[in-house]
Design brief:
This protein is an all-alpha fold and 105 residues long. It has one domain (2-102). It has six helices and no strands. The chain has helices at 2-12, 25-34, 37-45, 51-54, 63-77, 87-102. It is globular, with a radius of gyration of 13 Å.
Amino acid sequence: MKKFIAIFLLLCGTAQADPFAKGHPEAGKEVFDKYKCNSCHDGMMGGNGNDIFTRPNSKVKDPQQLAEVVVVCIRNVRANFSSQVTPQEKLDLSAYLNKNFYKFK
C-alpha cells in the first residue's frame, strides 16, 4: 500500500494547482457508482452518503489524506474489488471527490 501511495502522489504532482490533475473527475464518478461507494456511506450518514465528505469532523484535511482514504476504503470496505481497481481509477476517484467535495488546491 505504501508503494501505491508513493506512486499515486508522484502522479498527482506536488507543485500543481490541482493535486489530482492527471485524474478525470467524470471517470471518477463512474468508478464511484460502479463500486457503489455510497452504499456504505449512506448507512454511516443516515441516508445521504455524500454528507460524509462535508462533515465538520472530517479526517481528510489535504490531498494526501484524500488519496490515502480512497485506498483504505477500496481495500477495507470493498476488499473483493481492490485487485480490480486500477491506479488510474483510484486517481480518477480522488479527482472526482476533490472536484465535487473537498476542493483542495
